[in-house]
Amino acid sequence: MAAAFSIRGPHLQCHTCHLVVATPSVPDERLRCPRCRASIHRRKPNSLSRTWALLLAAIICYIPANLYPIMEVTTLGRTQADTILSGVIYLYVHGTWPLAVIVFIASVVVPILKILTLASLAFSVERSSQWRPRDRARLYRIVETVGRWSMVDVYVVTILVALVHLGSLASVDARLGAVFFGTVVVLTILAAESFDPRLIWDRLEGEPGASVVQNGDERDGE
Amino acid sequence: MSRLIFGDKAAFVIVPDLKLIGDGILQLVGCHDCDAVVEEPNVPDGGAAICSRCGSTLFRRQRRTVEFTLALVSAAAILFVVANVYPFLSFQMQGQVTHTTLGSGTFSLWEQGQHAVALLVALTTIVAPALQIGLLLFVLGPIHLQFSVPGAVTAFRWVEYSRPWSMIEVFLIGILVAVVKLSDMANIIPGLALGAFGLLIPVLAGASSFLDPEVVWRKIGDLK
Ligand SMILES: [Zn+2]
Ligand SMILES: [Zn+2]
Questions:
Q1: What is the CATH number assigned to the segment(s) B65-223?
Q2: A108/B contact by beta carbon, under 8 A
Q3: Interface confidence: ipTM more than 0.90
Q4: Mutation site, A8, A91, A163, A193, interface B, largest B CB count within 10 A
Q5: Which ligand sits closest to the CA of B221?
Q6: Same domain (yes/no): A126, A174
Q7: How does DSSP assign B126-185, residue by residue?
Q8: What is the mean pLDDT of the segment spanning A80-102?
Q9: Which of A21, A167, B61, B107 is deepest in the core (most CB within 10 A)?
């Protein structure tokens, strides 16, 4: 069986368990990992177009997420709607400013930066950029890990809704903005997962070895 | 922590005598980020191999990874049950008191018709952490006791899939923000689950830093 795999040849890596296997000499669309049985692709399939589509959807949802209130707070018959930004301002005025800064970063800065960073990474790959691949790879790893912190506001709404339900005396209701905001967080997580950071390295010139282009790869032009 | 760094241009090492384990499986490790493939280096316990090409961590070696991870995950399981059963905050206003548990937050959202948000919160604070803890116990327990269980491969694959969706540390910040927002309005009393939550986060972080997936995959394979 070993003859079917080339020893010098290119390898495939399982996305799930990271097992390295030799590429079969006959291309197999439905290659399964011998160890964890996940399907193996050389690169995440349609990585760039998926990333773009998810980013575009995230940008579209980001606008109503900020315009619509995420919750309505009723105290003693008086109702007040809260958007993401007004929630941050409330924390700054009434609460403690460190918490306001954390929420501002998590809910406003992180989603915008995450969308912009992923878009520019995808763009740089599309343009076969040679610019500082190590830094771009690091940027991707940061974006991948900080995105989850945007969930803070969704959790705040959940906790307030669960705690404050005393009828007209005091109650909190979740509103449409929370739905859009949660959607933005999920879409950006999926976009980050769809982006294949190895594409950054595939487009480098003068790098032997790991960027061997495979038969059946969607980017045969190289 | 010692760092083991490969020589320059180790991006693609062609190894003269490949150790074939099975059909086409080579004793090579690959970088998850840039796909550089190298012969597996010897890394001392507690050390990490860093990709010379892109700088990401190839893998870490932990001493007794199965035992340490298993101990921490067992502690996490107990803390997770406590965190789910007891209320984490109570709200007191003009003589009326309401409590909230993890599940009741999701339930209230569902009742208000916010099904999508309720499902997202349930997934990230209950389902994904429960999967992480439960599946790790299911995989590591038998490995420690040296017997094989059917489904270990699928279970450990799902540990990997559910990892990005477990967000309990973010939830803790959410609790803090909620407490500050409500503090002018009413009395907030922290519950037992809040303490369990506070402990669960470092315990789970410790478990994931002790976990060496490569070793676990190999042990699953050996037991078959
Ligand atoms: Zn695999
Ligand atoms: Zn690398």
A1: 1.20.140
A2: no
A3: no
A4: A163
A5: 1
A6: yes
A7: IIHHHHHHHHHHHHHHHHHTT---TTHHHHHHHHHHHGGG--HHHHHHHHHHHHHHHTTT
A8: 88
A9: A21
